[in-house]
Amino acid sequence: MAMLTVGLLMVMARWASAPLRALPRGVVLGGDFGLLVPVAVVDTPAEVSRARAALRTQGIRSTWAMAMTPLHIDAAGNILSRPRQRRHVLVFGADAARAARTLAAPPGGLSSQT
Q1: Is the terminal CB of the chain with fewer CB neighbours within 10 Å at N or C?
Q2: Domains in the chain, start-ordered, CATH in brackets?
């Protein structure tokens, strides 16, 4: 009887901790990107394309990954901001400083390449 109870508790715990739906493809939990470093967080695929194009003109390879912003709740239980799907623009660590300068430069402006 004890084994049956333990087994039932294990099944219920597994069911309670399972996500309600599968995460979309490309969503990275935690933020560990290995050798890649996030240099920008943007909202739309068009912004990702523009950022990657700007980096490509400077010879910087890049990719992107989905990022979920967390739900923010104050001490009284009020929702301050809801989760949103955003996108990280990622580059290799050696290119991070140059990529950040490239993305910070105004579009169409003159920027020095180091």
Answers
A1: N
A2: 33-69+83-106 (3.30.70)
Please state, as a whole number, how many other Cβ atoms lie within 10 Å of the Cβ of residue 7. Answer: 10
Is the C-alpha dihedral spanning 86, 91, 92, 94 positive or negative?
Answer: negative
The helix or strand, by DSSP H or E, that contains position 81, with its residue range, turns out to be strand 79-81
Q: With contact defined as beta carbons under 8 Å apart, do 69 and 83 qualify? A: yes
Name residue 37's beta-bridge partners.
Answer: 91
Q: Average pLDDT, whole number, for the chain? A: 79
Q: Are 70 and 86 in contact (CB under 8 A)?
A: no
Residue 54 dihedral angles phi and psi, to the nearest 5°? -65, -40
Q: What angle do CA 110, 102, 90 make, to 5 degrees?
A: 160
pTM summary value: 0.57
Per-residue tokens: 10? 């294990």
Contact 72, 99 (CB under 8 A): no
Contacts of 19 (CB under 8 A, 6+ apart): none
DSSP 66: E
